[in-house]
Amino acid sequence: AQSVTQPDIHITVSEGASLELRCNYSYGATPYLFWYVQSPGQGLQLLLKYFSGDTLVQGIKGFEAEFKRSQSSFNLRKPSVHWSDAAEYFCAVARSGGYQKVTFGTGTKLQVIP
Amino acid sequence: KAGVTQTPRYLIKTRGQQVTLSCSPISGHRSVSWYQQTPGQGLQFLFEYFSETQRNKGNFPGRFSGRQFSNSRSEMNVSTLELGDSALYLCASSWTGTPQETQYFGPGTRLLVL
User: Fold this and answer.
1) What pLDDT is stored for residue A98 in this prediction?
2) B27 min Cα distance to partner chain A (Å)
3) How many CB pairs below 8 Å do chains A and B form together?
């Protein structure tokens, strides 16, 4: 069965600083990987996804993520954080083939300070 | 294009009661998935429906059930509510439910069981 680990429960960064959120996955084959963002009181919004090909994936709102098979990681990055990026971020994995049955990580809450 | 809508947004029930939540997917989307989000367990997959058929099911007791109608609208039902069922219930839709597709999430229904 697939699983996802987000080791950082809470991260605080200054506005304008760079950001990296960590995600490690466990899956036997090449997984489908996702990053979602959830603002307070809202549903989830997809930031980016990786299935195959270029291991550096560009997403919305200036985010990118890099798939590293050797490290079983899919870390999310942003070069310069804005106050509006404060939210909770979820890494997720789905098995290739079959139908959608996404497994989410426990989330990382991002706080942005001025 | 209207997004995924969920009704009601908030609900308070007492132990032992049953509850029905509704989800209207984006027009044209035929796959609807349900997730439970709690502080302790995070986001957990409940089930996925496509063309009125349940294709995938998570590890939840039989008290949790769902159905999908011919217009792709979906309902989930929880019978004999327990305190631990208090959660945010999220619904997500996509075209056909393959893992590569983007899932679009609704704002959720927040259920409080007293």
Assistant:
1) 65
2) 18
3) 65
